[in-house]
């Protein structure tokens, strides 16, 4: 048997196009060929189970071997094999109607995966690294003759009688000079670990040494000997292929350690398993994040029938869950997936919604079943919950029942519980309920204590995400406003009808204002005289809540109109407590320099409490304090 011919691709030469446009992703040739070998192996098992193949199945594994001297890589299987006619059908005919059409379609392709997936070039990806490719194959069919196919990277091929004596196929790649890096065993091992680690058929890559028991010596000690065994690189039954009922906590933890050997153990996990209206399995883990807001993404791995596809799962997994770890496997997502496919495919959107719902249900279940344990984990999972509430409306609707707010006393409340706690006392004269919060309890302690004197509660909102979360809550919650505790004096943060009366006359108010303006002499500081409780601080320096919040969000990369606020110079309010005894002392003094010195001292104390007193001003304050002692 011998035949020569031209591959029916209806274009001058596909191989230069493959090499030119797919070169940056050339490692995927091994994924494609090993996946093909796994498919062939699974098909023969299926035929055997259906009674359509009655021979011995034998040792069903895929082997990858490299011969650096001969400059070849071989992928072997004991699958269904091919006849010469099947080679002509499946290898020689590529579905292109013309070079012009191919190049026109190619313009839309963004990466190698998309080209291979769209044009059925899985096998031909071999020519990304090989000058010549040879197939030795023997079909499972009774009486089939072995066949050999060889192609040198042109459109010409040759089919002759093969030399394979067992069912299956060998794909032999004669590696080109530009791709000799793939002749290194460690390079191939790296690619196999990436793409083939969980394939459903054993994949052998060389041999490895094991120590096995070899009897007992005279003293009763066990002897061991070294033996060479197949180096099977994959786990054929990862936990996501099993039913949750078959697994215990240690199984899930061991798998997590296998995926992320240097990470802390996760908080908990969610086992995904759905077969309608799409097929999906997987396990998602909640890692420990604390307050670092570690935006290290690409920790979720996407598989298709246990073949690794990508760790860029942005369109499949909701944005707020990109910080999760784990695996997702869906046969509904093609092996050679592209970003444009993910964005357009209806199943992907369904998967996204399903994952959102499953996560919300899991968190709700944890909260209801063991609130104490849920609260202990809140410092870690709070990031996911808040991020999800901001970015996903459906998640917000579920999470509103279990999101927690923490106060300075480390007490935790649901939204409804906190509303009840602060109703009345923290409702201002306009009927708006005010939630006070701090983003730095140590730095803002004076303001927190001022609030506590009035029995007001103060929340802790010190995560980078909290600025956005606060704004989102204000849009969602009716007649509730959140104000940072140092945004103004406490009586203006929660305005009541029973404000303290002023002890100053109009002329004294004017005089005090002039004294402080002269002592401060800063254009970005606006002085006001307030009627506060005599025990409140004599001076408070604050930034308007709205302006401060907008500036902080712009610094986080709010984009759009937020950048405008980031460019506006900072302006502060200087609230002077007209009822404080220091003001009376200033007014009683007839020495203008003493008045100015006392006013400046009180102002600097206010700056110091905010961490705003630095440089020469701080030195002057220290020297002034020494002189006043």
TrEMBL record:
GO MF, any single term: unfolded protein binding
InterPro entries named in the record: HATPase_C_sf, HSP90_C, Hsp90_fam, Hsp90_N, Ribosomal_Su5_D2-typ_SF
Entry binding sites for ATP: 32, 36, 77, 82, 97-98, 339
Tagged with keyword Transmembrane helix: no
One protein family per Pfam: HSP90
Keywords: ATP-binding, Chaperone, Cytoplasm, Nucleotide-binding, Stress response
Entry keyword NAD: no
Family per record: Belongs to the heat shock protein 90 family.
Protein name in the entry: Chaperone protein HtpG
Organism annotation: Taibaiella soli
């Amino acid at each position: 048997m011998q035949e020569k011919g031209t591959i029916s691709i209806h274009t001058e030469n596909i191989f230069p196009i493959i090499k030119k446009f797919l070169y940056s992703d050339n490692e995927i040739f091994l994924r494609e060929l090993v996946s093909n070998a796994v498919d062939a192996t699974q098909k023969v098992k299926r035929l055997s189970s259906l009674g359509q193949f009655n021979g011995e199945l034998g040792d069903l594994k895929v082997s990858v071997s490299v011969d650096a001297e001969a400059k070849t890589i071989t992928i072997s299987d004991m699958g269904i094999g091919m006849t010469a006619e099947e080679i002509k059908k499946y290898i020689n005919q590529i579905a292109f109607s013309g070079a012009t059409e191919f190049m026109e379609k190619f313009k839309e392709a963004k990466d190698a995966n998309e080209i291979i997936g769209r044009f059925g070039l899985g096998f031909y990806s071999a020519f990304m690294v090989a000058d010549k490719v040879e197939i030795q194959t023997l079909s499972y069919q009774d009486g089939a003759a072995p066949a050999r196919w060889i192609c040198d990277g042109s459109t010409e091929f040759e089919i002759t009688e093969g030399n394979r004596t067992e069912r299956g196929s060998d794909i032999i790649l004669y590696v080109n000079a530009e791709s000799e890096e793939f002749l290194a065993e460690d390079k191939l091992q790296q690619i196999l670990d990436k793409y083939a680690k969980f394939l459903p058929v054993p994949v052998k890559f060389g041999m490895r040494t094991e120590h096995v028991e070899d009897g007992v010596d005279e003293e009763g000690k066990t002897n061991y000997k070294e033996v060479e065994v197949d180096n099977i690189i994959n786990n054929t039954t990862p936990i996501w292929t099993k039913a949750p009922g078959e697994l215990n906590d240690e199984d899930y933890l061991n798998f997590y350690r296998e995926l992320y050997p240097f990470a802390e153990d996760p908080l908990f996990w969610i086992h995904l398993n759905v077969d309608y209206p799409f097929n999906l399995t997987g396990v998602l883990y909640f890692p420990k994040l604390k307050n670092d807001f570690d935006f290290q993404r690409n920790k979720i791995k996407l598989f298709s029938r246990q073949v690794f596809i990508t760790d860029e799962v942005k369109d499949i997994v909701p944005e707020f869950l990109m910080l999760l770890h784990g695996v997702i496997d869906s046969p509904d997502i093609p092996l050679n997936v592209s970003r444009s496919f993910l964005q357009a495919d209806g199943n992907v959107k369904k998967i996204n919604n399903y994952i959102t719902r499953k996560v919300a249900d899991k968190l709700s279940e944890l909260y209801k079943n063991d609130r104490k344990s849920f609260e202990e984990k809140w410092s870690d999972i709070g990031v996911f919950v808040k991020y999800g509430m901001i970015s996903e409306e459906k998640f917000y609707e579920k999470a509103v029942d279990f999101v927690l707010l923490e106060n300075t006393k480390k007490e935790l409340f649901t939204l409804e519980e906190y509303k009840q706690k602060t109703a009345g006392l923290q409702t201002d004269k306009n009927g708006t309920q005010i939630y006070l919060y701090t983003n730095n309890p140590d730095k803002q302690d004076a303001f927190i204590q001022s609030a506590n004197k009035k029995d007001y509660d103060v929340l802790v909102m010190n995560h980078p995400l909290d600025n956005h979360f606060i704004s989102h809550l204000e849009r969602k919650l009716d007649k509730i406003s959140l104000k940072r505790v140092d945004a103004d004096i406490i009586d203006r943060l929660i305005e009541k009808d029973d404000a303290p009366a002023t002890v100053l006359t109009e002329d004294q108010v004017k005089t005090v204002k002039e004294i402080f303006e002269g002592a401060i002499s800063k254009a970005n500081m606006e002085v006001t005289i307030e009627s506060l409780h005599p025990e409140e601080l004599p001076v408070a320096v604050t930034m308007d809540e709205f302006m401060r919040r907008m500036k902080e969000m712009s610094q986080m990369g709010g984009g759009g109109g937020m950048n405008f606020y980031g460019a506006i110079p900072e302006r502060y309010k200087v609230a002077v407590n007209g009822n404080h005894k220091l003001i009376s002392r200033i007014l009683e003094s007839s020495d203008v320099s003493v008045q100015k010195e006392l006013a400046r001292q009180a102002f600097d104390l206010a700056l110091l409490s905010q961490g705003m007193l630095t440089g020469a001003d701080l030195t002057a304050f220290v020297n002034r304090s020494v002189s006043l002692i």
